[in-house]
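Worked Example 4.2. Read the sequence first, then its C-alpha cells.
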Amino acid sequence: MARSDKQDKLALIKRTTRRRFAFTLVTLLLYFSFALNWTEFGAGMSTGIGSTSITGAMLMFAFLIVTFIALEYLFLRLTGVSLRKQDNDGAQ
C-alpha cells in the first residue's frame, strides 16, 4: 500500500510539473509577442488608436497583464482541484 501511495504522489507531481511547463510556455510566447512591438512586425502597434494617445502596444500590455493573472488563477485552480482530489482519494 505504501508503494501505491508513493506512486500516486509521484504521478501528481509529474502532472503538476507538466501543467506548469505548459503554462510557462504560453507565458513565454505571450512575452515574445509583446517583444515583437519593437520590430517591424509591431510597427502598426506604435500608432495611436483612433484620436486617442493610447497605442496598440499599451493596450496589448494591459491585455497581457490581465491574461497572465487569469492564466495563473487557472493554474492554481487546476492544481488545487488535483490536490483536493488526491487528498480525497487518499482518505478513502
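Now turn to a second chain, presented in exactly the same format:
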Amino acid sequence: MSTYGFAILKLVVTIVAALSAGAGQDSRSIDDPGDLAEQAVKANPSLASMVKQIQSLGQKAEAAVKWNDPVISVEYSNVPWDTWSLGDSAMSGILVKLAQKITLPGKNELRKATYEAAQRVRSLALDEARNQLVASVHAIYWRLTLVRNLRNITGRHVLLVKQLEESARAKYTVGSIGQHDVMNLQVARHRLEDDLEDYDQQDSVLTAELNEALHRDVTTVIRTPQEFPDVENMTRMLRMLPPDRDLLNSARVNRPLLRLMREQAKEHRIRAKQVAYERWPDFTVWAGYRFRAQAGIDGGTDFFSLGLSVPIPFDYTSRSSHDSESQDLLAEARVLGASSIADKIAAQIQVHLSTMKRAAGKIESYESRLIPEAQRTLEMTLAAYQADRADFATLFRAELRLLDFERTVEKAHSSFLVNAAKLEAVVGSKLFGSNIVQEKKP
C-alpha cells in the first residue's frame, strides 16, 4: 500500500473511533455534587465561625438579665495624720459599705431581647451563607465537568487533525493539494493543543476553588462524570418545577435573605425601644456601718447609714430620642430593602428559568439533529475526499464544524445545571432530586 493510501486508511480509522468515543464511566467513582455540598456545609470554617458568633450572642443574651455584682468597700477614715489612731478624734472610724446597682424594671429584658434579635439575624445570615455555599459548590462542580469534557473533546479532535495533517502531507507529496493546506492544519492543531493547556489551567483553578469550599487540600482530586446527564433527565427536571408565581411565593417564604431583612427590621425596632428606655439611668443603693472608738467625751457609738445615688443625665434625653428615631428609620430601610430584593428574586427566577429552557432546547436540537448531521457530513466528506471528489477545505470545515457543535452542546449542558443550582439558591429550597449525576443513554 502506498504512503498516501496508508494515510487515508489511518485517517478513516481515527475518525470512526473519534465519532464513537465517550465510553461510559463507572458512576460509583464519581463525586456527587450533593454530597460535596453537604461536606462543604459541615467543614467550611467560615460557617463554623458564624456558628460561634451566634453562640456568643446567646451568652450575651443570658448575661443581659443578670444583675451587676454588689460592691463592698472598707474605709479607714478621718484619722489624724500624725497618729493614725481611731481614739484621737471623734471623727475617726472604719466604714464598711455595701452597694448594689439596681436596673429599672424591664430594662434588662429589653437588652436581652436586643441580643436575641441579633442572634436570629445572625442565624438567618448563616442560613443564607449555607444556601449560597451549596449553590457555589454545584456551580463550580458543573463548570469543572464542562472544562474536563471540553478537554476530552478537544483531545479527540487533536488526534483527528493530526491524521488530517498526515493525509494532507501524503496528498501534498503527490501534488494533489498545496502547502498552504498542510500549514492550515498545522496551525489548527497548534491552536487546539494550546486550548488543552487552557483547560488544564482552568481545571486546576476550579479544583482549588472547590477544595477551598470543602476546607481540604486544594490539590485533592475531584471526580466528575465524563458526560453530562441525558437531555431527557433535564426535561424531567423542568417538568418538576412549579409555576413561576409559586416559585416566587416559595422564595418569599423560604429564602433566608428575605427572612433576614425582615428580621433585621424587627431588630431595629427592638433597639429603638431599648435606646428610648436606656435614657432613664439605673440607680445605686448602699448601706454602711461605721465602727468608732471612744475619743474624749465622745463615747464612740457606731454609726449606720443608708443611701441612694442616681446619675444626672445631662442632655441625655435629646440624644436618646435621636438614636431611637435612627433605629426606626433603619427598620423602614430594611423593609424597603426586602421589597427590592423580592423584585430582584422575581427577575432572577425568570433569568434562570429562561436560560435552562433555552439550554434544554439547544441540547435537544444539537444532539438529535445538528451533531448527527455534522458527523454524517464529516464521514461523507471524508469518503468524497478519498475519491478526490471533495477538496481539502471542505473536509477541514466539516471537522471544525463538528468540533464547534460538540463544544456548544457541552456548554449548554453546563449552563443548564449551573442555572438549576442558582435557581435553587434564589428560591431558597430544594427543587430537584439529588440523583442528577448519571451517564447518557447509549
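Notes for the reader: The chain has ten helices and four strands. Residues 382 and 395 are 6 Å apart (CA to CA).
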